[in-house]
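Dear colleague,

As promised, here are the two records you asked about, laid out in our usual form so they can be pasted straight into your sheet.

NAME FIELD: protein one
SEQUENCE, THEN STRUCTURE:
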Amino acid sequence: YVAVFFVFLFFTFTALSMISFLVPLDSKENAVSVRVEIPSGTSTKRISEILAENNLIRSKLLFYCFNNQI
């Protein structure tokens, strides 16, 4: 039962960590418009880099994985 408990804790912690990456970076009160140009044909990896460079996403890896459904 101890092993099951630790597995449960691990998955709970992992899920909560992933959820924190999906919430907006800032509140609506502090929102600022940002224009980002993403050329046609740009790879998902490069898009994640562009968005991260402009502080629009928290995690390049999570963005990439979520959009490639890995």
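NAME FIELD: protein two
SEQUENCE, THEN STRUCTURE:
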Amino acid sequence: STTSDQNKTSLDPLDKGQLAIGLKITTRTIAKCQNLGYLPFIKIGNRCLYQADSVMKALERDFGYNWEGFR
């Protein structure tokens, strides 16, 4: 881990790879869920960024499952 990774807070946006690691799923699954409208994201240029808190709330709302990835 780098120092910048260690200093991340739950308010810092995550990229697709970081979100996949946190949820313990693949980046392809992230892409599918995003395309189906399950994941809230912010698009800046060609990058999609995700707020962990917003993603967790959306997954709990849409799937009724308490994801443990970022807790």
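A couple of things worth noting about protein two: The beta strands are 42-44, 47-49. The radius of gyration is 12 Å.

Best,
R.
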